[in-house]
Amino acid sequence: MRKNAKIQIYCNYEHPGGIERVSLRLRALLGRSQRPAGLISLFGDPIFGHETAAFSNTSLAGQVLIFSRKGDLREMGARARKARLIYWRHVPVTQRGYKRLIEIAFIAWLSRIGQIVCVCDDLAAEVVALPFVNANNVRACYSPIGRNVPPLVDIREPSGNGPLKLVYFGRPGTQKRLDLVLWQVDNARYNNVDVELTVYGYDGVPEGGEMDGVTYAGIVEKPTEAMRAADAVILISEYEGFPTVMVEAALTGTPIIANDFRTGRADFERLIGPVTGIDAEDPLSLAQALSTLPTGQYNMSALSDEVLAEDWLRVLDAAR
Predict the structure, then answer these.
(1) How far from 265 is each of 14, 62, 261, 294, 301, CA to CA, in Å?
(2) Do residues 51 and 43 touch, judged by C-beta distance below 8 A?
(3) d(Cα 256, Cα 275) in Å, to the nearest integer?
(4) Roughly how many angstroms between the first and final C-alpha of the chain, as a whole number?
(5) pLDDT tens-digit series, residues 269-280
(6) What is the pLDDT of residues 159-174, one digit of tens each?
(7) CDD domains from the entry (predicted)?
(8) Please, are residues 256 and 301 in contact by the beta-carbon 8 Å criterion?
(9) CA distances (Å), 186 to each of 190, 192, 230, 282, 284, in order?
């Protein structure tokens, strides 16, 4: 914890996941760029082993405050308005009805009192297109993944020993489509494709999720280790921001199979490398995808410290 930092990153330990992982990486990137940042949480709970300061004990006057959820501001209350706000937006607007109107109003309001930083260009374009948003205060900054990122990573070929091993990272809710992943695996096995799936992110076996060839491995804090042991990563999702799981897969050279989810995939393929597409509604799609896994290299240069720091420091300087 950096008590004298002029930048604070708010994390909520009650909802650990992709946002918290990349928040810790952002803090590390800023530290390497001589912009030390502190971590704050509502009650001062540790975040994946990292110490945080309790919000009630942290003065935000004159600080830059980076947060990622609408609920973060609700938790922090009026005191957060003393800081210069940077809203780090990770996902598109998916709500319907009055909840959608509330979300759009929140984004438009933030674009006028602070800055909105989107995790990819695709998402930033969607945010700018929303009504009443101040486009001048919307930027795209990709999420950090760590120091000394190699410029190129070879895409691994399947080991060839035994069944093809897939990994899937999800969580309860409607965004991640475990049901469709299981359906695809079941159809592939029915069509004599020797494939096994390990599922991470669920505490136990979800209702209706038990089936042959599928193992539930619980919550994982180091997903890259699981990826290195797999032949491919599969992702079927309703939407993403810039998909962290695909970036981590690329870092380990693991082939990626994914549906055409909303925001982020086009940016990934343009910047980093190939993805084998899957039609989640086609029962033969996974079987076909497993025979055409991507080869070549992932180009990680767009996620280097130099590139990411330049973008983030530009945002922070504008927040002064």
Answers:
(1) 28, 37, 7, 15, 17
(2) no
(3) 5
(4) 22
(5) 999 999 999 999
(6) 877 899 999 999 888 8
(7) GT4_PimA-like (cd03801)
(8) no
(9) 6, 10, 18, 12, 10
